[in-house]
Amino acid sequence: MMGEIDLYGVFIPGLALWMAIAFALSLPLRRLLVATGFYRLVWHRPLFDLALYVVLLGGVVTLAQGTLP
């Protein structure tokens, strides 16, 4: 995992990049779940969305560690 990203002299944690990618992936996935009516089966939608985001973040970080040296 990369340590930091230098953005014009401002150091941003590498995890922030992976968080943004996971959030971008979660948006169409949540829209798909709404369209299919899956949320009718979910008891607490915000809690489910948070869990979905955490799972996606873990997947993105795991894939990034496998592809980056």
Task: Give a short summary of the structure.
With 69 residues, the chain is mainly alpha-helical. It is built from 2 helices and 2 strands, in the order ββαα. It has one domain (14-66).
Annotation keywords:
mainly alpha; 67% helix; DUF1656 domain-containing protein; membrane; DUF1656; 69 residues; two-stranded antiparallel sheet; elongated
How would you describe this structure to a colleague?
A two-stranded antiparallel ribbon has the order 1-2. The protein has one domain (14-66). It is 67% helix and 12% strand. It has helices at residues 14-36, 45-67; strands spanning 4-7, 10-13. By secondary structure, it is mostly helical. α1 packs across α2 (45-67).
Low-confidence stretches: none
Distance between the termini: 8 Å
Give, in spatial order, the strands making up the sheet with the most strands. 1-2
The average pLDDT score comes to: 90
Summing up helix and strand content along with how strands pair, one would put the structural category as mainly alpha
Number of separate structural domains:
1
Number of helices: 2
Main pleated sheet: 2 strands, antiparallel
Q: List the helices and strands in order.
A: EEHH
> Level of helix content?
55-70%
- Give a count of the beta strands, DSSP E runs of length 2 or more: 2
Strand portion, in percent? 5-15%
Pfam families: DUF1656
Transmembrane segments: 6-29, 50-68
Protein name: DUF1656 domain-containing protein
InterPro entries: DUF1656 (IPR012451)
